[in-house]
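During the no-cost extension, the postdoctoral fellow (Dr. R.K.) reprocessed legacy sequence entries with the updated structure-token encoder. One reprocessed record is reproduced below for audit purposes.
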Amino acid sequence: MSESGTSLRDPAHRVSPRARVMWTVTAATEGAVAVAVLLVAVLAWEVPWWTLAALVVVVVGWVAVVPRWRYLVHRWETTETAVYTQTGWWARERRIAPMSRIQTVDYAESPVARLFGLASVTVTTASAAGALSIDGLDRDVARRLVDDLTRQADAVEGDAT
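Re-encoded structure tokens follow.
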């Protein structure tokens, strides 16, 4: 039980459903490059054909499973006192950053994310574990989140160290 009397639970919000599509396109592109490289190796250096077949099976499985799994797991939430994130697809990680520890809040759009109308928000804290990142947010949601977190963190007394 936490101080507020509630048990540890999943953060309330999922990332945008378009993140699943973006992750699928990214995984398919990376997989196609890997297959193309191995195809060249099979043709040029007489690498056994079954290695290419095995890679194709792995890539298809990766593209079919990982983006959907990431979407089910990746969550985020903010309250008046903290930012909560949950990430991972193989190993799951939950992070909680108190507002008093927030040092910076960053907004970023990669070229691929921009194609899907998505963005990432990174919350840097005074933690040795590093920043919290929320990837795959709708662009407008991300902008509001940056504004809200900046305002909330500024309102909390302390020096974020």
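Residues 17-45 form the longest helix (29 residues). The chain is about 45% helix and 25% strand. The remaining legacy entries will be reprocessed before the final report is submitted.
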